[in-house]
Amino acid sequence: MGGCLINAISCAAYYALEAEGITSVGVLDIDAHHGNGIANTIEGEERIRYVSLHELNAGMSMGGGPRPEYDPRSPEESDIGPRGNIRNIVLKKGEGWGTYERKLVEGLVFLEDSDLLIVAAGFDAVKEDNTSGLSLQPKDYKSIGRIISRKMKDKPVVLGLEGGYTHEKGSSEEMGGVLGACVAEFVKGLKD
C-alpha cells in the first residue's frame, strides 16, 4: 500500500534465519499502524512469529479509507495468518501507557521463545503525532525498551526504524523534539 518500497524488517527476519544458531525469529512491531506488509511477507514462514501492536480505526489504509480487498492481512485480532504465526494486538484511539503496557507484555509472551527479536520501532503512538490517536509519552518508550530487554533476557535484539512523523518541539528540543526524545528514551530503556 505504499508504506515502504522494500520491507527491511521482513528481509532482516529471513536473513537472520540463515545465521548459525538462529532457528526462529520474533518480530515485534510497535508502530501505531498495522504492519500488513510484514504480516503478508512472513505469513507462510513458521520460523518467524510476528506481533503488531497497532491502533485499529476506520482509516487503516494509506489513503484513509477501509482496507482494500486485495490486502491479504487484516488488522483485526482474529487474523492469525494461515500458519498461526501472526498476532494482531489492537489498541483503541486515546489509549495510553496503562493499556499499552499490558498488551506489549502479552505480545512478548508470543515471541519470547524466539532466538532473535527484531523490533519494527515506530514512534508514532506518541500523543503529539497526528498520524495516530494513541497517547504515549516519550518516557513510555523507555519503559517499552526496558520491558523488551527484560523479557528477551540475553537474546539479541535488532532495531529497524518504522515510523514517527512528528517534528514538533517538545521538552527535549536538543534531542530533536518529541520524536528524538522518544528514540532516546527507547534506547535508554533497552540498555537498562
From TrEMBL:
Its EC number is 3.5.1.98. It is an enzyme of class 3 (hydrolase). Residues 1-169 form the Histone deacetylase domain. GO terms for biological process: epigenetic regulation of gene expression. It is found in: Nucleus. Residues 61-82 are annotated as: Disordered. The keyword Cell division does not apply. This is histone deacetylase. It comes from Triparma retinervis.
